[in-house]
Amino acid sequence: MIRPGLLAVTLAVVGCGGGSSNHHGESAGGGGGSPTPSSSTLGGTAAVGAAIQMGTVTAQCSDGSGFTSTVTTNADGAWSGEVDSAGLPCVLTVTGGTPPVTLRGYASQAGTVNITPISDMVLALATGSADGSWVATPASWPDTATVNANKTELLAAMSDAGFTLPAGDPFTRALVIGDDWDQVLDSIQAAIDDDPALTDYAALVTLVKDGNLAQFPDAPGQGATDPELPANLSVLTDYAGTYTVIGNGVGDPGYCGGCGAANRDHLRGSVTISAQGDVDFDTGIRFPVADIVAIDDRTDVPTDRRIAVNYGASDSDERIRLYLNSDLEVMEIIHDDGQGATTRALIQEDAGDPDPEPGAELLSGHNGVAVARDGHVWAIEQPFIETFMATTSKRQIRANNFDDGDQIQDTTPFVGDEQLLWAQVNVAHGNLGTQLCGESTGVSMMTADMDATPVVWKTWTATECELSVDYHFGNGATEGRIISATLTNDKDTEQVSLSDGQFRIFIHTGKEGPMPALADNLSHILMVDSGTREMRSGYFIEGKTPEDGSHPDHYIDVKVSAGSAYPGVGTYHCDSSSASVSLAMGWVTISSPLFKFQSSNGGACTVTIEQSAARKYVGSYTATLIGPSFDAFGSGLSQGDTELPEAERTLVVHGAFRNFTTQMFHAANQGNEGPLGSEAHGITLTIDDGSTHFTAGETFLLASEPSSNGNNGYFNRPFNELPPPVGELRMVWSEIPMAVGSYACSQDVGGLSPSMTLSNPAGIPYGTVYYQSGVQNPTEGASCTLNVTSVDNGEVAGTYSATLVARNMGPVLPGGDDAISVSGEFRYPNTGP
Questions:
Q1: Which pTM does this prediction carry?
Q2: Could you tell me how far CA 672 lies from the centroid of its own chain?
Q3: Are residues 333 and 429 both part of a single domain?
Q4: Distance (Å, rounded) from C-alpha 410 to C-alpha 240?
Q5: Which of 614, 628, 743, 830 can pair with 710 through a Cys bridge, CB separation 3.0 to 4.6 Å?
């Protein structure tokens, strides 16, 4: 039986080393500066359900080093800092803050590291210590594999206690306050409150660090199992799988001599029992697990071993029976409909399909990794390439044999009772032809016996293998075959051999159906009219990961230009103007360009600007794009890449675009981020009259930036769900008089002319003034009033109100709505005389 939430963390059991990259950068709450080549960025969220606000995060790394600067959590619990890469792994500790707690997290490599009660309990279990005293002695730290194994144990105990665990690794998945994993954190505290044996969280940590996971408190409001299902459901689901039918028991009584002859034929070649307990027995005969009334377990009866699944109140009602031999293998499955009709299916365990023909297509033209053993092919279509291996000497392609809901896709046992969780192929970067196992080439897999207690995980590594690579691009594309491989595991002396296999990651297939209109939060949609070897069909949304199994760092970026930074409404042709369309695809890296399709390579394009406000515009386009050859400037091709004939790199597309968005940006906490407070620096921003981008009645809280000082104030509020550098709301005040009084924008006050601007992730600037030839001019319809009530103790404080206008933006905004009215209070530093 597969426990929910377990499979999603297995990828961390065997680390591949290295760091990670992100097309849009990392969202950060503290620290600062770009990492140097020898530093690594760590960042994540500190939370106990509620965000830990203004907590101090420290790093204790294995070489004794720590963060390069002070790191503090923000209002959403987010934090970020830099450590020396050579110092990894590091233990992260959050202290103080609101609420005032001490929790620990663990980072084995750069990237996201959440600090929560889950990470804290895993480390307590791994070290047998609840007080963190072990942190001071790096030599005694548990290694990454131990931490991951204990993470699996804890999550299994929580699942058994009735907690619903979402997909993803709670250590490294982006954690947002209020999301599924954050609700699990809330449930932990609720479970402590409901359990009379636990006084507080410290008592739970003590229980966990002593290994008493069976005593983990039940999830609030539910037991460890669905009360509507039989408690012994695993008696049935232990036999999940697809069974081949070799007879129907008509005339021949079959395996069960006392069951009577069948009076209804079995019309299909198999019977399937799902991992959840659904049974698909016959054409039109399917039994959902929710209909099970009771399960009778008679597997210990020597003369009549069976499992009876009743869908009614008694044995005379509808039921299914599984008859077993002395080895507890299914020999016959019988369905009684409760009306006197019986269907019998004699079962034969699959002896294995014939070995696939050498070189046969195993992935049905899709991306993935396929492995073959004893005639069975596991074709796994959820592949990705490790980010840091995109352009190094070794490329790693891994595919997971489970979906986002942690359900194994191909349940056929790989060896014994063990199921295949993932398969990985390593190939030397840029080398075509035969590759033998070595430093950069190999095959590895993970299997698990999910029914064992505890679960048995095995990592298999090839001691010998032969691969053949026949297609390669520097943009992340790789295709080839596993000719043969012999693998051993890390638990026993057993070996397995692979007779054939295939790996591929380069085909991009977009979403099917007609191209939709641009949504509020989108700036580009591309539709493939005629595809290439790498881009097949469908439509793609800019900024979204291709929904075809590619890795999240594999992007498709489209750039459309009418040939001017301020295009007017009209049609522009690339053969008679500087209009252009280009598409870049593959790994987003700093050191090498992407693989580019361009109209300038000999294609054609028409760009139509339908609405224009000079800097901001909306339009559409059609284009024929030609992929690069080795002699094309900036082609993105590199040594070892396969050059395609022009017919296979000619792409015909059309699409819609704009260089801004019209999405709404909302305040947290149901539209209210609270008052400024008696000591905080920053401003409140209440939307008195909304616009295209803001809803009336909502209040944002913007923190004061370090550069704020007296006459000039700078304030920001990040949107953690949006990628930087545009993922923030930022207000700038200029030339504010430092004396108590009331002041209007754009009016001369002793040589000062107060102004306000507000930028947002949509790319539309709102303000009270604009500059022309370096001269400040008031924006028509805009105004503001600042009431400075205090300029004491190194601070300036007061209230304000304003009408801010997005100058000249009305033509591209819905309803021409280009103004916003706001008000609030402010307090920020004043270190002047």
A1: 0.54
A2: 28
A3: no
A4: 11
A5: 830
